[in-house]
Write a structure and sequence with these properties.
The radius of gyration is 28 Å and the shape is flat. By secondary structure, the protein is α/β, with parallel strands linked by helices. It has 18 helices and 30 strands. The longest helix is centred in the middle third of the chain and has 29 residues. Strands 1, 2, 3, 4, 8, 13 and 14 form a 7-stranded parallel beta sheet that branches. It has a 5-stranded antiparallel beta sheet with strand order 24-23-22-25-28. A 4-stranded antiparallel beta sheet has the order 6-5-7-9. The protein binds 5'-O-[(L-methionyl)-sulphamoyl]adenosine (MSP). 5'-O-[(L-methionyl)-sulphamoyl]adenosine binds next to strand 2, helix 1, helix 7 and strand 13.
Length: 637
Amino acid sequence: MGRYYVTTPIYYVNAEPHAGSAYTTIFADALARYHRLVGDETFFLTGTDEHGQNIMKVASERGINPQAFVDEMSDKFKQAWTFLRISNDDFIRTTQPRHERVVQHAMDVMYKNGDIYLGTYNGWYCSKCETFYGENELVDGNCPIHHTPVEFVSEESYFFKWSKYQEPLLDLYKSNPEFVVPNTRLNEIRSFIERGLKDISVTRTSVPWGITVPFNSHHTVYVWFDALLNYISALGYGEENNEMKFWPGVHLIGKDILRHHAAMWPAMLMSLGLPVPKKVVAHGWWLVSGQKMSKSIGNIFSPYDLANHIKDTVNVNEDTAVDALRYFMLVAGPQKDDADLSLEALWNVYNADLANDFGNLLHRVIGFMKKKNIESVHKTTGGRFSRISEVVADALIKYRSAFENEDPQGALIAAMSIVKFLNDYQDKEKPWSLSGDDLNEMLYAELEAFKVVTAMLSPAMPSVSKQIGETLRCDISLLFGETAAFSPDLNEPPLFPRYKEEKVSSDTEPNVSETVTKKDEPAKDEQKPLIEYDLFSQVDLRVALIEAAERVPKSDKLIKLSVDLGPLGKRTVVAGIGLKYQPEELVGRRIIVVANLQPRKLMGVLSEGMLLAATGEDGLPNLLSCDGNPEPGTRIK
Ligand code: MSP
């Protein structure tokens, strides 16, 4: 039994959790759950990064004080992680006194040992990533990450002697080539350091929303210096008699914050006389239509929307939908390279792995037992089906080695290889041709293997695994140790119903993807299930003024509208209203638009919103509008 400490980045609270932050958190959760499964003493930390110029700016735009703002936003992260069944042991916030104390203590230690000194900072700063850039790092004069303007900062500042750690850092990478994975990122950070490290400004006089520097109250601590220390403040660094038994840990991050974690943080730790992290695991980005998914671009997928989409489309409960989303993210996510996030990718993985392979196998075995009136099967010593246990043992080795190397994707592929094998085996061995002891032995071997697979999948799908444990009436919290007999619940409905694709003409379905599923929708006049106000309030309905309209080529129904949404700017909305309206009669009308739907391409034209219409008796749409003449962009409540 060992000890395992895993962390996520602490997320900025200027934006709500999205599929990107959800990915890192699910990734870390799977690692933590695996280590608990094999009996390691595990500590899993996540949290929120709440200081800095950008947070202050966003709070003031919202017209509330920064503390109230960060309290509200930090709660949203906690709620999202509860929804995604994240099993973190602690949640650190950089505005907590326990963290502020540690930051001040660490600053003191570094000031006293001469690694922090006073100077003047002149240079470029991007407040969105709260990072200083050299002139040569800017792209067309803009931030290389956000592509937005940077500001020139010139002020008195304390500096950290980063340059002093150039050689020790290069030595670290040399002596521990696994310090940063994957290897491409190690090379990236090594060459960054080889270009020469300069001392870095670590305090600001112009950013009041930060932790006061203990030896000069005119300064606050640079937000990254503050944030990185969360990994040890949560462990109680500096407390008397606290040896921080979990330190050092594994940091999971996105590739965008490699420099801070693989170069700045270890240097800070060296200065504090503490061990460097065990490992920095840097994954890639989720892309949407080829671009990084991010708030500034506005192409965000929310984890709630994705899980609810699964839930509603294939009619499963929330536990199952969340687990399917977690599984998809871990198997198809940007673990090494960037990956595309789309509903198509999601349903492909769902059908192939969860519906056709995993769910189907359980359904087949249990269905067969039910048909044959076999209520229970028990362990025997026949050995006729030992091939199954050999395959399981082999997959378990691969699985463990993958998880021990922070590779959940590899681990899940190993687990699924057993499922694929069993499905083939079931076809080849034809259980319906067996009887008596042979049949008992085969079904037992299959259920035992299925039980192990379920345990193997539990770090990714904790709720589904628990549910299967209840169906099989056995303990799935163990990877090893055989169950004496199985008497499963034979009346369980299928686990992952297949997603059935139905081509819907893009002409008739404005703003939904061109291929959608028609699931069991309530009958035409039936009321949809009740929802909370919070859910409704997420729909951003606005008044839009139509400025131009033209037909989409080769379509009778689709009209491309250019609409003015006031403060939200001008947009293109493609709508299936062409049988009812002529483009020229639409210009100048004020309509109602859902402004925050994911943009979709309809007949090759990107639609950035959906208008509201009611179908008349003739089956044609009638546009909704508003009394009076509210300004374009007015919110509808
Ligand atoms: N607050 C800093 C981190 C401080 S850690 C001491 C920060 N926060 S962040 O909110 O911007 O979150 C960054 C992390 O969110 C990324 O490193 C990554 O883990 C995750 N992601 C954000 N967008 C992402 C994608 N589009 N794709 C995958 N993950 C991404 O930086």
